[in-house]
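Data availability (excerpt). The following record was deposited with the supplementary files.
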Amino acid sequence: MHTWDGAAVRSRHLLAWHERSNQDWERMVLDTVAEYQGKKQRAAERRGSIGLVFLNPSLRTLTSMEAAAVRLNMHPTTIIPGQGTWSFEWRDGVVMNADRAEHIREAVGVLSRYFRMLGVRSFASGTDYAADRDETRFRTILDAATVPVISLESAFYHPCQALADAGMLHHRFKGATAGRKFVLAWAYHPKALPMAVPNSALLMATRMGMNVTVARPEGFSLDPGIMERARMYASGHGQSVTETTSLGTAAKDAEVIYAKSWGAPLRYRDPEAEAQLRERHKQWRITEPLMAHTSRGVLMHCLPVRRNVVIDDAVMDGPQAVHLLQAEFRLHAQVAILARALG
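Predicted structure:
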């Protein structure tokens, strides 16, 4: 019989780390580092199965979640709607007489009866800012689920990436992240990418006590609510969050450059105008001369990355790039996340 303890299930959902206490966050970072160092010993008993629903493409998230599940002796099933399954309707109250055959509420309800937990990846719409900011689509999934749900990236947050990044930085700096200069560097991209990773990277770095600079062109500001939360985290560590429109100025003495592309908020109102604005900033990319201004800083990127558009080959293949270690930490972070969700 399928039973549902609503409060117990909701306590194990993972949408974004700011919904979790500092104690929970810090324990998860340490668990991630312990996984990397091989210090965690997991019991070998069968732990059930996990359904991984990918509404958007993935390489690292998909493969690392499958591998993490196997490490915990779980059976992963990957589901890509539209490829062997029905396409989903998300709207409530709609007459479903078009091409979408299954409502997301039934889909999630059924999957909740097949799996011990679910992982779901669902990007931002890029058309409805309020809905993306409020995570309307993902919260529909949480509302319909009767098992724990882990976000594999949503409209505004990527908790798996954030935890992996935190674990790698904790490892890199031997736990001494407080006060180090972290630069979140906007970079040109031919597409208007979502804000989930930059939002999560900013909140992660400030929660780690780092001194953060957001370097981005005019018009590419992040959400005011995200900035306010980041400043609150930074203030709690005696640090600050600053913004600049000069990438060169930001890079000076930086210990971490986190390169990431994102679309301007203008895309929600006028996609053509946003594209024209973005095209004017092709010079915003990470180069060897830029990295030379850092304090032997490391270069981070969540991947995938467009070489010689976002970051030059010389940097990607140089000694300052840690993107592959960063990607490895995705596996360790996801083991920690799944273990937490298992209770």
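Summary of structural features: The longest strand covers residues 49-54.
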